[in-house]
Amino acid sequence: MFTGIVEELGEVTAVENLGDASRFRLRGPVVTDGAKHGDSIAVNGVCLTVVEHEGDEFTADVMAETLKRSSLGALTVGSRVNLERPTAVGARLGGHIVQGHVDGTGQVLERTPSEHWEIVKVALPADLARYVVEKGSITVDGISLTVVEAGQDHFTVSLIPTTLDLTTLGLKQPGDPVNLEVDIVAKYVERLMAATPGAAK
C-alpha cells in the first residue's frame, strides 16, 4: 500500500521492448536505498516489482495489461517519474490509501497559474466520473490530491509550489497523459450497495 506522497522525482535510464511487455531501468537514489529483489516501488502511481537493483537504479518489468491501462508505455529514456516506496506498518498515512493499481488515464487539459498555487484541469474517463467527488481524494501519476471541482468529464486540482517542484505535475503540459487511481473506498461501497437487496439506488 502507498499513500500518494511522492518521495522523489526519478528518471528512466533504459527501456527494453519485450514484445508483450517492457522492461524499464529507473534511477532513484532515495527509493533504491535498501531495495532488494521483489520489493514494490510505485512509478507514476503504478506498483512495480523490483527485478534487479544496482547502485541507485532498479529494473522492473511491465506487462501488457499495465501498459494498456496506464501511461507507462509512453515513457522514454530521460522521462521523469514520480517514485514512492510502500508505506511501513505504523507509519503516518500522509495522503490516502493508494494501491498502485491504475484505473485509467486522463489528460491534462489546462493549467491556470496563480501567485502561490496552480490549478490543473484533467480530463476524466466517463467510467471513473462517478468515483470522483468535490473535496474527495484522487491519485494523479501517483500523487495524492484533493479534488477541487468534479465535473462529468473532468476534474481540477490545486497544486502548491512543493508539488510543482518535486513531482511530474510541475512538468506536465496540456495534452500530456496522466495515470488515475480513484479512491478504493468508493469502489467498495458501490459494490456492497449493488449486492445488498433493497439498498438505496
TrEMBL record:
PANTHER family: RIBOFLAVIN SYNTHASE, RIBOFLAVIN SYNTHASE ALPHA CHAIN
GO annotation, biological process: riboflavin biosynthetic process
Lumazine-binding repeat intervals: 1-96, 97-193
Pathway: Cofactor biosynthesis; riboflavin biosynthesis; riboflavin from 2-hydroxy-3-oxobutyl phosphate and 5-amino-6-(D-ribitylamino)uracil: step 2/2
One Pfam family matching this protein: Lum_binding
Subunit relationships: Homotrimer.
Name of this protein: Riboflavin synthase
Keyword Transferase found: yes
